[in-house]
Amino acid sequence: MVRLITHNLLACHAKGCTSNNFPLRFSNVKLALREADFNPDFIRGFLPRIEWDALVQASREIGDTSLPPERPEMLDDDFLKQLHHVLLEIHVDEGSMTCPNCEHVYPISSGIPNMLLAEHEIR
């Protein structure tokens, strides 16, 4: 399933696309909410690995405006629960992700992103 925790790690890998290839832009998404056990220690530990601006942009593209534009200094339970929800409970079931550089489209079907490239698109 495409979740924003996964999306935050994906970049375009098409041949010749080596700059401005992150983050992929969402479009035409259909979402599902799936509850996940809250683990504040996991969220705290993963937070330094998150590209915050990309996460905020992606969450807004799919219609969630709950995250602040800047990463908060204070990591209280309310913030950690909201971040948990955005990262782990919002699933993109259908839609696409598009590279901001080369405009390559990666379709998402049944929650699975197709990141495979045609032979001529491989580096």
Automatic annotation (TrEMBL):
<protein>
    <submittedName>
        <fullName>Trm112p-domain-containing protein</fullName>
    </submittedName>
</protein>
<dbReference type="InterPro" id="IPR039127">
    <property type="entry name" value="Trm112"/>
</dbReference>
<comment type="subunit">
    <text>Interacts with TRM9.</text>
</comment>
<dbReference type="InterPro" id="IPR005651">
    <property type="entry name" value="Trm112-like"/>
</dbReference>
<dbReference type="GO" id="GO:0070476">
    <property type="term" value="P:rRNA (guanine-N7)-methylation"/>
</dbReference>
<dbReference type="GO" id="GO:0030488">
    <property type="term" value="P:tRNA methylation"/>
</dbReference>
<comment type="similarity">
    <text>Belongs to the TRM112 family.</text>
</comment>
<dbReference type="Pfam" id="PF03966">
    <property type="entry name" value="Trm112p"/>
</dbReference>
<dbReference type="GO" id="GO:0046982">
    <property type="term" value="F:protein heterodimerization activity"/>
</dbReference>
